[in-house]
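Example record

The entry below shows one chain as it appears in the dataset: sequence first, then structure tokens.
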Amino acid sequence: RLRQDAAPHTSGSRSEGAMVNTGKNYPIELGWAFLLVVGYLVRVAFVSIRLPGAIGILLVGFAFSHFMQEDILENRNDLQRFAFLLVLLNAGFEVSIRRLRPAILLISLLPGLVEMAGIAGLAMLTHDVGIREGLVLGCVLFPLGEGLVIPKMNEFKAAYPDHALPRVTLTWAPLEATLALSLFSFLSSVSSSLTEGQLSPVLLVAEVVVRFVATVAAGGFVGAGAGWVLSHTSKITFRKKRIFTGSAVEAFLLVLGLGFGGFGLAKVVPNGFAPGSMLFDSDLFVIAVGSSFSDVADPIVLHNVEGFLAGIWVFGSIILFSMLGSRTDVQVFEHFPQILPFMLVGVACRFVGLCVAVPLAQRLGKHSPFAPKKMLLEILFLFLCSLPRATLQGALGAQPVQDNFFSRLGEQGKAWRQFIGQGARLYIITFSILGSLLLEFLGPKLLLATADKTRRAMPPIDEEHASCAPSQIGSPFFMEDTPVSPTAGGRALLSHGAAAAPSPLS
């Protein structure tokens, strides 16, 4: 049977060559019941046997593709976009600008950039594409799976409370996610069908700079304003009566609403450089809102907002990975020989990047967690942490098709869009399983082998601040582990101003 989207392809808005059955005509409530109940139960079953829950949800989505309800199919792209906004908001919550240091930036950014460059270079050599097309592929494939790595690092931190490496990774993971999202935002501005080829190089650089500055400034103002207001609700009155209730759900709804508002506003405010060119970048706007909110908001308010976001992400993760699974067909494995070289070159470049970044970080940091005699084992642990991939590949892999990237290249552009989507799906299937298993079974052994040296480098923990810090259940990427108490949250030691202890690399 011919497998295609129910609605015809129009201007790149529908997935080209999407491998799903046409929508079925039955009550939409039955479709949602299948996704939520079966998706959650399969996710729990996978976690119980120490496999990534995201893979279970992908399989549920693949099964659902054979009898997908027509309304869900028609709005599949919008559903994925909603889940992606939650990814963006959490990435912002994880990044505290005030606490960044050169050493942690080096660990977080350099290895990923080296992997991205390696993938892009291989694409240019073997597939006859330009640097732009290669960088888009590299940007989609290189980010580690924050949704798989953060819960495992929280588990390692609880098992090895004096070890620095899990805390280093808990800082690194969200920064790499933010890097990937920011780079993809820039690449979108030069690849989307709305702006491609309409600006000279000078105007293009000016347009990117203006958009970046305007986005960070506006998003930062909105997030900081929301953080201050929600932290001082008792002082905001009208005729001696409080305007806000000060409840946790109120704070969460306002922050989520501002995130949606910023995401939508970025699509309607032009910058005047070219038709269809916007003043704000939607992805970066949401990240800026989350980051500035986390810096300004009271730690308890932030913890409450992240707790509600965690509950929404249970729903959002099922949407994101099931919709991605619904686009997958067993025929995607036919492309594995073409994707395998990118996998091998990518992980090799990642390892090289870590071998460069870790020694440099040791020289930059005053309290380095790395021991020269066991640095290779520590690099191997960080390398294992970079292998699980899922969340951003699922969120970004479909964007080139949805936004009709490389439209001026004609059939070559269409083929490359599809190749990026196929690569993202194969990365998820391969690395989420293989990477998670390697980290599960080899990670503890590497931590034990390096425990003696790193224990001496740990800074003291501020118990007073840790007591009110966000727990790991506050992360919307919490998918693979059981909740712990707020005082055991790994991110409590790493960010959010007063809620954080000093970074081991600060």
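Notes for this example: Confidence is low (pLDDT under 50) at residues 1-15, 453-506. The two ends are 59 Å apart (CA to CA).
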